[in-house]
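Late entry, written up from scratch paper. The run itself happened at the end of the previous shift, but nothing got recorded in the book at the time, so transcribing now.
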Amino acid sequence: MRMLKRVVGVSVFLAILVGGFCILLSLEGNFTDPAKAFYQWSGWGAYLALIAGMILPKGKWWGILALILGLLHLSVFVFFDFYFEWGLMISELVKKPYIYAGIGALGLMSVLGIFSLGKFYPILRYGVWGAVICSLVHIVMIQKVLDWKIWAVILVSVGVLGVKIFRVSIKIGK
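Output as recorded:
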């Protein structure tokens, strides 16, 4: 019964993910280049899930969703952009330093994902904060122009981080 419940849960999750992707493709009108829409929205989805994990209940599950979307984001880069041509990927890494910040965020989210299988230790919150900072740096460095939407993302992210850090500093000070 427990196994059936997990299978149903994973199936529903995948159905929502695929359905959401199809809706995004239709809204973007991007059926000619679905990789571009998938690239952009998997990255934004990962970031939003990471932020949601900091402020909403069931933060661990939001973090796992962020990790899954981050891995999907990476898979577009590895598969669709370069089709596993490692030499080309490395030359691209040298030209685009924002990718380092994305790799740092994904690395931290991977460590958090491993620990999320058990108890979430309080020290892991620093990993969450680091992943948010690396993700934000990744997003900002990609932009050619910082429009009002990106500034809103920066302000909300810094605000959420500030509140979290302030709360921890108060607890440590007591």
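The mean pLDDT is 81.
(Scratch paper discarded after transcription.)
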